[in-house]
Amino acid sequence: MKNIKVGIIGIGRIGKIHLENLSTRIDGVEVVAVVNPSKKGQDYASNFGVKKVSDDINVILDDSEIDAVLICSPSDTHSDYAIQLAEAGKAIFCEKPIDMSLEKAKRVVEAVLKNNVPMMVAFNRRFDPDFAKIKSDVVNGKIGNIQSLHIISRDPAPPPIDYIKQSGGLFKDMTIHDLDMARFIMGCEVIEVFATGSCMVDPAIGQVGDIDTATLLLRFDNGATAVIENSRKSVYGYDQRLEVFGSKGMLQIKNPLMTNVTGSDAQGSHSDVNLNFFIDRYEASYLNEMQSFIEALINKKQMPVDGEDGIKSIALADAAYASLQENRPIKLE
User: Which residues contact 126 (CB under 8 A, 6 or more apart)?
Assistant: First the structure.
């Protein structure tokens, strides 16, 4: 069986993670082309043996040997690239969100279906061993009927203001992972969203029209509820916790620490600090996610996270924005 030949658009933080995993840790794949605007990113790709590096997307679009393409460029470019790739007959791996606009995201999925190409949307947390174990236990009925879910997601520090300006806002940049995780764990759909938030971390974030602190309440079609808490700054490190409560018990994910060493003295018991950020916390999830994408291509199986999942996450983020602005619960169709 021939190797899957892959192109990558964008070599920022995420693109570098995927390039390294594909080049050094995953069998049955070859990265043959990388498109990136900066020479620095192109040089990074060349160091991994990528033969075609350019700032021209046509290097990928016109290469008939490329089977699949990873879209790791800025969020506001995702949909345009995805439509071009679908029309060129390439399988697509798209970082979230598909687009800032729900309508444009729908056009992407329409193009994917029209051209009959596979597409996976990158919600990597589904592939984290801890979150995957929670999902498996829920599906297997370990805690009975699910009644409530609590997700906490706090970054160690806010990103630069220039990033905030083009991020799509807290709900589409950060909360969107938690909205997808809520659907993933519950296994059913959200029918109502109530969101509240403000600027508690950095006034400059508010000055560009965004918030940095939020709480969301979701109501699902099975009657269960979920609470999502977000903050752009946590002084004790990256905070990623989850608790799901059911009729037979409770499942919980705690934060992994830098080390498992604990100490005790006259002042009490002490443990190490949280991991720094998502690159450390979700290292395994990025590898598992990419392996799942390549395996689905090789075995011609359905993608584990598809365009509809991407559309629903954007719709939930839009509902959260509407709720925040109107100060009321928003019902979803």
Answer: 132, 135, 180, 181, 184, 285, 289, 304, 305
